[in-house]
């Protein structure tokens, strides 16, 4: 039977990895899953975090997913299918990847009997989606326009932003399902099959909550095949490398929570270029900690996976300054 392909896209820090963790736990628990991670930076923080969920993870770092996976996406995907014979393949493109490129690559006729695109989900952060559309529309619009399901994130934290985010998404994509419930109150099934759940939950929406789907959602039952030519190196516009800088730092330093917070705050104040996203796994005073940063939002949590690495993405970044600031090598 053909493996099912799920593409989880979304701009920087939207919540893709968090969603994948939810899908693995709730929907794909008894399935053989291979994850393809196309992270920014030289090392994949997401892959490290997801490996601790016990699934097979294939990392592709830096560059366009469809061109850089062993030089040939289709060939490499076929190899993965032969080697692991997965039931499901989840692809997490980098936040600055274009969904249309991935869909084209996945729709190559050579893959047809082996794997079928089942669902394309885009995660959109209600707080930041307007800002990202205004500034990085080329990437983010593409991710929204080509999605079957748009899952809004941070709706519980910013309920006043839900309506406007919903409208923005609907203007760009008249056909997708849009889910705006707090994630703790949605099941993975509801995300993967919004057409089933829609009627069940419709009556229960509270203020500011939507769960709607337009016509022609191709998730699951309608088949999500998109026809197009395979993207081969040099034949399409990559863009992201020209617009965004990435800096990866390795550091074995031990950070207390306060120390790490202070350094991040210095990074913001010192305006080391425009940092759009930072993440990493470093040594804390009592074990590994995972740092997740978006402008105005810092989370430091304990984590099982080890790392010694920090990755930054933004514009006009100064590697040397960041190395000094975080005690990197
Ligand atoms: N409060 C809240 N936090 C969220 C939500 N979704 C994601 N986050 C947090 O946002 C941070 C980034 O989430 P990730 O899942 O790593 O986002 P991503 O899209 O994989 O990020 P990139 O690695 O930049 O591609 C983490 O600290 C998450 O816990 C949400 O719906 N609500």
Automatic annotation (TrEMBL):
Residues 6-178 form the CobW/HypB/UreG nucleotide-binding domain. GO terms for molecular function: hydrolase activity; nucleotide binding. GO terms for cellular component: cytoplasm. Pfam families: cobW (PF02492), CobW_C (PF07683). InterPro entries: CobW-likC_sf, CobW-like_C, CobW/HypB/UreG_nucleotide-bd, P-loop_NTPase, Zinc-reg_GTPase_activator. Residues 244-322 form the CobW C-terminal domain. Keywords: Chaperone, Hydrolase, Nucleotide-binding. Gene3D superfamilies: CobW-like, C-terminal domain, P-loop containing nucleotide triphosphate hydrolases. It catalyses: GTP + H2O = GDP + phosphate + H(+). It comes from the Bacteria. Belongs to the SIMIBI class G3E GTPase family. ZNG1 subfamily. This is Putative GTPase, G3E family. It comes from Desulfosporosinus youngiae DSM 17734. The lineage of its organism: Bacteria, Bacillati, Bacillota, Clostridia, Eubacteriales.
